[in-house]
Design a protein that fits this description.
It is a single chain. The chain has about 350 residues and is an all-alpha fold. The protein is about 70% helix and about 0% strand. The protein is built from 16 helices and no strands. The protein has helices at about 1-5, 15-20, 30-35, 40-65, 85-105, 110-130, 135-150, 155-180, 180-195, 205-220, 230-245, 245-255, 270-295, 300-315, 325-340, 340-354. α5 runs parallel beside α7 and α10 crosses α11 (about 230-245). The radius of gyration is 22 Å and the shape is globular. The chain starts with a helix and ends with a helix.
Length: about 350
């Protein structure tokens, strides 16, 4: 609806029309939420978890350069099987880790074999996060773990926050000492951050920082309604040309928004507020608000909602959620499964009428 309405007066309707066509998959959440039956939700989630477990094993195989017959793996993204980018993979794996961690803490009736599998899955998946190149994935791992701890032990919020932070810090320290890739990526982030003090936006981290920096003027001048659907890309290009004296900055910033109608400021938050103003940003944030406040008595599914909100919101600050079909489809699919089924709603309505 935002893209449809804000297309009025837009000078770049091609982008708005592309998004309207590309985002049709969003309506899939309605079909899933209306048709899924409660007895299948656990089976579907188990299938998702087993799929991530298999992906993780293949990721290790790729790390050790083992050839897997028949299976066609992604090339050019390091130890990432199947998916288009390491960001997609790290996001899905972080969500899976949040679910596994919750099961380990809350399922007191698990058999010794089930507990052993969950522990093995959690341990190996935690290591797997640190052998892929996604720096946002390193953060999402901590976010998923902390969100579960806070959800389960919110009455001891301060204690849990301190204990969780110490545990995660220990994990990061260990990863830094044993994973060369993690060490390289975090060291590069540190150097990129140092360069930002001199307004150097020619690095990977600098690109995202540059878009935030130059979007401020767009937001200030078009706070309520934004500049219109698709008009934010040419607008920020003009601001960069007018204000940035560095050819290296300009080349890097322009290179990362080169995709025509599929261009993005590498942040769902920035894309929404620059195009649609504060109204568009509130529409986007309302997705997370609705999930957070959703009255779901099933704690397993409520935990899934909490993990989804925490990971996808943080992710939205550094990448576009809906441009990446995989992330958006996972988010919408799991969100649909976390809702009450038609049968459950029907029973509630009958009880209210009685």
């Amino acid at each position: 609806m935002l893209y449809l309405i804000w297309m009025v007066g837009s000078e770049n309707t091609d982008m708005a029309l592309f998004r309207l066509h590309d985002y049709k998959f969003i309506f899939g959440i309605i079909i899933i939420a209306m048709t899924v039956q409660k007895e299948f939700i656990g089976k579907i989630l188990t299938g998702f978890m087993l799929g991530m477990f298999m992906s993780e094993l293949l990721s290790y195989a790729m790390s050790f350069q083992l050839k897997i017959p028949i299976v066609k793996l992604t090339e050019g993204m390091g130890s990432v099987p199947f998916m288009e980018s390491y960001t997609d993979y790290a996001t899905a794996l972080s969500i899976a880790l949040g679910v596994i961690f919750y099961n380990l803490l809350s399922k007191y009736t698990l058999t010794i074999y089930q507990k052993s599998f969950y522990l093995f899955f959690f341990f190996t998946a935690s290591l797997n996060i640190f052998i892929v190149a996604s720096r946002i994935g390193y953060l999402l791992y901590a976010v998923a773990i902390l969100s579960v701890l806070i959800f389960m032990y919110k009455k001891q919020f301060v204690k849990i926050l301190i204990a969780g932070t110490l545990l995660i810090t220990f994990g990061y320290t260990l990863a830094y000492s044993v994973s060369d890739l993690f060490k390289q990526r975090t060291t590069a982030l540190y150097h990129d951050t140092i360069l930002l003090s001199n307004n150097d936006f020619s690095t990977s981290a600098g690109t995202r920082a540059g878009y935030y920096y130059y979007s401020i003027e767009i937001i200030k001048n078009n706070f309520l309604f934004g500049v219109g659907a698709g008009d934010h890309i040419p607008e920020i290009k003009q601001i960069i040309l007018d204000q940035d004296p560095s050819p290296a900055n300009i080349d890097n910033l322009f290179f990362n928004i080169r995709n025509g109608v599929n261009a993005s400021l590498h942040s769902e938050l920035l894309d929404d507020i620059t195009q649609f103003g504060i109204i568009g940003l509130l529409v986007f944030l309302n997705i997370f608000y609705q999930l957070l406040t959703y009255k779901q008595p099933d704690r397993d599914r409520k935990n899934l909602q909490i993990v989804l909100v925490a990971t996808i919101f943080i992710l939205s600050t550094a990448t576009n959620i809906f441009n990446s079909d995989f992330i958006a489809r996972i988010f919408l699919f799991l969100s649909a499964l976390s809702l009450m089924t038609f049968e459950e709603r029907k029973i509630i309505m009958q009880n209210k009428s009685i």
